């Protein structure tokens, strides 16, 4: 289990403010590989970073326990 799979930034360096500032996450695009977000400086509105969040991989369906599919054996003629 990945504990840090979906980390969120709370402070990033802003090139305009020239210091680490709080950021707001803003959805920019919905792409085939995931959703692209911009991190925007709360103080001046400059984009301080971005991130693409990929959807979690689909888990295969679990087989029911105790139930097995049984097929009839072919008949022998002779």
Can you describe what's shown?
The chain has a domain of 43 residues. It is an all-beta fold. The chain has no helices and four strands. The relative contact order is 0.20. It is rod-shaped and about 90 Å long. Helix content is 0%, strand content 41%. A four-stranded antiparallel β-sheet has the order 1-2-3-4, with no helix packed on it.
List keywords for this structure.
single chain, 78 residues, mainly beta
Question: Quick recap of the structure?
Answer:
The protein has 78 residues and is mainly β. It has no helices and four strands. It has a domain of 43 residues.
Strand segment tally: 4
Q: Spell the H/E element sequence.
A: EEEE
What is the gyration radius calculated from CA atoms?
A: 25 Å
The proportion of residues forming helix, as a percent range, comes to under 10%
Strand content: 35-45%
Number of helices: 0
What is the strand and helix layout of this fold?
Elements: E1 11-14, E2 19-31, E3 34-41, E4 47-53
Antiparallel strand pairs: 1-2, 2-3, 3-4
């Amino acid at each position: 289990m990945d504990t840090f799979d979906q980390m969120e930034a709370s402070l990033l360096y802003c090139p305009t403010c020239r210091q680490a500032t709080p950021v707001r996450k803003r959805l920019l695009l919905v792409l085939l590989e995931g959703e692209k977000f911009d991190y925007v400086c709360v103080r001046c509105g400059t984009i301080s970073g971005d991130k693409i969040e990929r959807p979690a991989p689909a888990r295969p369906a679990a087989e029911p326990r105790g139930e097995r599919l049984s097929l009839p054996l072919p008949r022998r003629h002779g």
